[in-house]
Design goal:
The chain is mostly helical and 127 residues long. The chain has 5 helices and no strands. The protein has helices at residues 7-43, 46-56, 60-87, 93-117, 120-123.
Protein backbone atom coordinates (compact mmCIF):
# COMPACT_ATOMS: atom_id res chain seq x y z
CA UNK A 1 0.00 0.00 0.00
CA UNK A 2 1.41 3.33 -1.07
CA UNK A 3 1.79 6.08 1.50
CA UNK A 4 -0.53 9.01 0.97
CA UNK A 5 1.71 11.33 2.99
CA UNK A 6 5.28 11.07 1.76
CA UNK A 7 8.25 13.30 2.58
CA UNK A 8 7.70 15.66 -0.35
CA UNK A 9 4.10 16.24 0.71
CA UNK A 10 5.25 17.14 4.20
CA UNK A 11 7.93 19.45 2.82
CA UNK A 12 5.42 21.36 0.68
CA UNK A 13 2.85 21.50 3.47
CA UNK A 14 5.25 23.46 5.67
CA UNK A 15 5.07 26.82 3.79
CA UNK A 16 1.33 26.41 3.31
CA UNK A 17 0.74 25.89 7.02
CA UNK A 18 3.18 28.69 7.85
CA UNK A 19 1.34 31.23 5.72
CA UNK A 20 -2.10 30.15 6.96
CA UNK A 21 -0.92 30.57 10.53
CA UNK A 22 0.68 33.93 9.84
CA UNK A 23 -2.36 35.27 7.97
CA UNK A 24 -4.27 34.87 11.22
CA UNK A 25 -1.51 36.66 13.13
CA UNK A 26 -1.30 39.47 10.57
CA UNK A 27 -5.01 40.12 10.92
CA UNK A 28 -5.08 40.01 14.72
CA UNK A 29 -1.72 41.38 15.98
CA UNK A 30 -2.62 45.06 16.23
CA UNK A 31 -6.08 44.47 17.69
CA UNK A 32 -4.76 41.91 20.19
CA UNK A 33 -2.01 44.23 21.43
CA UNK A 34 -4.45 47.09 21.98
CA UNK A 35 -6.81 44.86 23.90
CA UNK A 36 -4.22 42.97 25.99
CA UNK A 37 -1.45 45.47 26.66
CA UNK A 38 -2.74 46.15 30.17
CA UNK A 39 -2.94 42.44 30.92
CA UNK A 40 0.77 42.14 30.09
CA UNK A 41 1.64 44.38 33.00
CA UNK A 42 -0.43 42.21 35.33
CA UNK A 43 1.21 38.95 34.23
CA UNK A 44 4.81 39.97 33.53
CA UNK A 45 7.29 42.07 35.46
CA UNK A 46 7.22 45.71 34.34
CA UNK A 47 10.61 45.61 32.62
CA UNK A 48 9.79 42.51 30.58
CA UNK A 49 6.28 43.76 29.80
CA UNK A 50 7.75 47.01 28.47
CA UNK A 51 10.03 45.05 26.16
CA UNK A 52 7.24 42.81 24.90
CA UNK A 53 4.90 45.71 24.25
CA UNK A 54 7.65 47.70 22.54
CA UNK A 55 8.55 44.72 20.35
CA UNK A 56 4.97 43.99 19.31
CA UNK A 57 3.61 47.52 19.10
CA UNK A 58 3.54 47.67 15.34
CA UNK A 59 0.96 48.20 12.69
CA UNK A 60 -0.51 45.40 10.66
CA UNK A 61 1.49 46.51 7.61
CA UNK A 62 4.77 46.44 9.53
CA UNK A 63 4.04 42.96 10.81
CA UNK A 64 3.09 41.81 7.30
CA UNK A 65 6.46 42.97 5.94
CA UNK A 66 8.25 40.95 8.62
CA UNK A 67 6.15 37.90 7.73
CA UNK A 68 7.01 38.30 4.03
CA UNK A 69 10.73 38.31 4.83
CA UNK A 70 10.42 35.19 6.96
CA UNK A 71 8.20 33.54 4.34
CA UNK A 72 10.83 34.12 1.66
CA UNK A 73 13.33 32.17 3.77
CA UNK A 74 10.76 29.45 4.47
CA UNK A 75 9.96 29.17 0.76
CA UNK A 76 13.59 29.00 -0.29
CA UNK A 77 14.40 26.37 2.32
CA UNK A 78 11.37 24.37 1.17
CA UNK A 79 12.55 24.41 -2.43
CA UNK A 80 16.06 23.41 -1.35
CA UNK A 81 14.73 20.57 0.83
CA UNK A 82 12.59 19.31 -2.03
CA UNK A 83 15.56 19.41 -4.40
CA UNK A 84 17.60 17.46 -1.84
CA UNK A 85 14.92 14.75 -1.66
CA UNK A 86 14.69 14.51 -5.46
CA UNK A 87 18.33 14.85 -6.55
CA UNK A 88 20.46 14.04 -3.53
CA UNK A 89 23.20 15.87 -1.69
CA UNK A 90 24.59 18.08 -4.49
CA UNK A 91 21.31 18.44 -6.38
CA UNK A 92 20.49 21.82 -4.95
CA UNK A 93 23.85 23.57 -5.26
CA UNK A 94 22.56 25.81 -8.06
CA UNK A 95 19.42 26.75 -6.17
CA UNK A 96 21.49 27.42 -3.06
CA UNK A 97 23.77 29.72 -5.07
CA UNK A 98 20.85 31.62 -6.57
CA UNK A 99 19.14 32.04 -3.21
CA UNK A 100 22.38 33.18 -1.57
CA UNK A 101 22.94 35.74 -4.30
CA UNK A 102 19.36 36.97 -4.10
CA UNK A 103 19.16 37.33 -0.34
CA UNK A 104 22.63 38.47 0.58
CA UNK A 105 24.31 40.12 -2.39
CA UNK A 106 21.39 41.87 -4.08
CA UNK A 107 20.59 44.11 -1.07
CA UNK A 108 24.28 44.99 -0.93
CA UNK A 109 24.26 45.95 -4.60
CA UNK A 110 21.12 48.01 -4.12
CA UNK A 111 22.72 49.82 -1.20
CA UNK A 112 25.86 50.54 -3.22
CA UNK A 113 23.81 51.82 -6.17
CA UNK A 114 21.73 54.05 -3.90
CA UNK A 115 24.87 55.58 -2.47
CA UNK A 116 25.68 56.93 -5.94
CA UNK A 117 22.31 58.69 -6.09
CA UNK A 118 22.13 59.98 -2.52
CA UNK A 119 24.93 62.37 -1.60
CA UNK A 120 26.91 61.14 1.39
CA UNK A 121 26.67 64.49 3.11
CA UNK A 122 22.90 63.93 3.38
CA UNK A 123 23.32 60.45 4.75
CA UNK A 124 25.95 61.35 7.32
CA UNK A 125 24.75 64.92 7.98
CA UNK A 126 28.01 66.40 6.79
CA UNK A 127 28.25 70.16 6.13
Amino acid sequence: MEQWLNVQTLIWLFPIMFILHDFEEIIMVEKWMKRNSTVMYDILPKRIADRVIKQFSMSTAQFAVAVVVIFSFVSSSTVMANQYVIQGLLGNIYIFTIITLAFFYMPLLILVNLSFFVPLRLVYSLP
